[in-house]
Design a protein that fits this description.
Elements (H helix, E strand, L loop, with lengths): L1 H20 L8 H8 L3 H12 L3 H19 L4 H7 L5 H12 L3 H6 L6 H6 L19 H10 L8 E6 L2 E9 L5 H12 L11 E5 L12 E7 L11 E5 L2 E9 L5 H16 L9 E4 L12 E7 L2
Antiparallel strand pairs: 1-6, 2-4, 2-5, 3-4, 3-7, 6-8, 7-8
């Protein structure tokens, strides 16, 4: 079973990488990539970054720039034409990014192909450093072999994950729309309503459910829910929205420290542990459970549980 599930997730990423490599002349449709993978955009991009070390947009941009650098070395096409082919609308924007990646201007890079500048050429190779071995000139049939070290994750500490059975959970929630790092504002509003309503029982847990992928959704349109678990006998104020998490099997891991690093833990959880676990994601939302808050402990002592619903 473990091998078959790993093959499923490998095939998802391999297919996506192939699509990206064939899309260097056009913008990526990230929603379409997720749909073709059969995953929600939120889960798809976490898994892709965890398995390849780059988001789809980062890989797409890197391959475009590697292709542009190679064209500078092997062709006499004007720099502005190469910039347009790399997806830039202006020469200045292309030059600025090119210089940040290659530590020289496109024109200086092109001069390095001069036979008299052999040493310079050695310093200015067109391929950029990357965690995966995928580059713009990689043969299509080599992708599985080049991604294999990432799938195996040799040398990476094993993530501590438990499989737990959770009961049905009733939630009192408030919606949050905007940058995810401001969801604390929704929790503050939730507390001001739930506290006086007597919803904070001894077993109440604070949860956050996230619905949109920050890579494909503008910050002001990101959607999430700030929630608290409540017992079935509690009456909810009209300003709170009742939601539920179904009973079932969930994978759980613990994140220690700053909320700013939660994205990296999710990437490892989705992109490294899940493909090798022998499990498949279920249909319920993934969520975070906060065991303490910045009001109680220093940032480095924050503890957050991450949950993935399993089939």
């Amino acid at each position: 079973m473990k091998t078959s599930q790993l093959t499923f997730y490998q095939s998802v990423i391999e297919s996506t990488v192939s699509i990206i490599r064939r899309s260097l002349d056009r913008a990526l449709d990230l929603g379409e990539l997720a749909a073709q993978a059969g995953l929600s955009p939120f889960h798809f991009h976490r898994m892709f970054r965890g398995l390849t070390g780059e988001t789809p947009l980062e890989l797409h941009r890197r391959l475009r720039m590697e292709r542009a650098a190679s064209h500078l070395l092997i062709s006499d096409d004007p720099v502005i034409q190469i910039a347009f082919e790399a997806g830039f609308e202006t020469h200045e924007a292309f030059t600025r990014l090119f210089r940040s990646l290659y530590a020289c201007s496109p024109s200086a890079f092109r001069k390095s192909r001069n036979p008299m500048a052999e040493g310079l050429y050695a310093a200015y190779r067109p391929l950029l450093g990357a965690r995966s071995a995928i580059h713009f000139n990689t043969p299509e049939n080599a992708i599985p072999e080049l991604l294999e070290p990432l799938f195996n994750q040799k040398g990476v500490p094993v993530m501590q994950v438990e499989i737990v059975n959770l009961p049905h959970q009733r939630l009192a929630t408030l919606p949050h729309q905007g940058p995810y790092n401001r969801i604390a504002e929704a929790f503050a509003r939730l507390g001001s309503i739930a506290g006086p309503a007597g919803l904070f029982g001894p077993d109440a847990a604070m949860l956050a459910l996230y619905y949109d992928d920050p890579e494909t959704t503008s910050p002001e349109e990101l959607r999430a829910d700030a929630g608290v678990t409540v017992t079935k006998d509690k009456h909810l104020p009209a300003t709170l929205i009742e939601k539920a998490l179904p009973a079932g099997r969930y994978a759980r891991t613990l994140h220690n420290g700053s909320y700013a690093l939660l994205g990296d833990t999710w990437a490892r959880f989705m992109g490294q542990w899940l493909p090798q676990s022998g499990h498949r994601m279920g249909s319920a939302a993934s969520f975070e459970r906060y065991l303490n808050t910045p009001m109680d402990v220093p940032v480095d002592e924050l503890r957050t549980e991450l949950y993935i619903h399993l089939e």
